[in-house]
Write the structure tokens for this entry.
Amino acid sequence: MSHHPLLDLPPLTAGAFAATERRMAELLGTANDVVITQGEALLPLEGAIRGAARPGSTALNVVTGPYGRTFGDWLRDAGAQVVELSVPFDRAVTADQVARALERHRGIDLVSLVHAEAATGTSNPVAGIGPVVRAHGALLMLDAVASVAAEPLRTDAWGVDLCVVGAQKAMGGPAGVSAVAVSERAWRRLADNPAAPRRSYLSLLDWKERWIDSGRRALPHAPAQLEMLALAACLDRIEADGLDAVIARHRGAADRAREGAFDLGLSPYVTDARDAAPVATTVRTPQGIHAGALAAAALTADPEVPIAAGAGPLAADLLRVDHYGRWADPAVVDRALAALGAALKR
Ligand SMILES: *Cc1c(COP(=O)(O)O)cnc(C)c1O
């Protein structure tokens, strides 16, 4: 057999796997267990929800973008009663709105929330929401896939019980592995839930039993080796640059994109700049112009720019300039704005 650098690698050791977990924990600001799940971030999101939602329990699902809809479906499917708190997609939810929803439904014992919404360009104030959920006694499940490395994420300080991240957005890493930080309270909830997935690829409890509680000595199944190597490389790069510098790069790109949109005569979709996410800037397309057509024209002007039309109900009127990972760069933002400017002239 001929040698190939992607194929003939030495096995990934349990020690190397555990070391990557510890580095992820550091990045998430947590002393809790971190499981590096061997699949895209939808895997730990579904695993966390199906593990924490007990049949007959009540969950608060905060819907601030398209992922919230999916979480609601999983919660209902897991047998939970779902109270939905939906806000218009052009703004963040407030801690007060969450507090009022919890007061109206005293029995809520789980809250699902998205931190940054890449699809709509908003970011929710988890620092304020976390303590409200904790005071109520509910668990907080946070989808931080689009926020990790783009803005501060303090899992323990904010009281996040299940914090799910992926590496493919601001971390500039691979999409095929992801991670979830699990608090002691969350482990107890999962263990007490007779419907929590067991002997299943969705099972976080299997990881606890077969990996964490047995001393992280042997991996329960063959790891996604290439993706694990890419994740370690991406952590190397973030650590070398410094997390604060990576976050500042995203903030800078977001501010530049928002200013540039105004300069082109476009209205940001997220009206209050304090609600704007550092991963993507969304704009409303001018009256009579379809977002798909405008995005296509911008990509004709410059095929490399990270511009896309909105998805689902936002497909006609919303245009997105992504600035995460390697796109969190003033030169990339300027190129995207130039392409958008050229498209608007046509
Ligand atoms: C990107 C993203 C995910 C991951 O889902 P994909 O659709 O597979 O990229 C999950 N949640 C949020 C909020 C995201 O932005």
Notes: The longest strand covers residues 108-114. The two ends are 55 Å apart (CA to CA). The chain is about 40% helix and 15% strand.
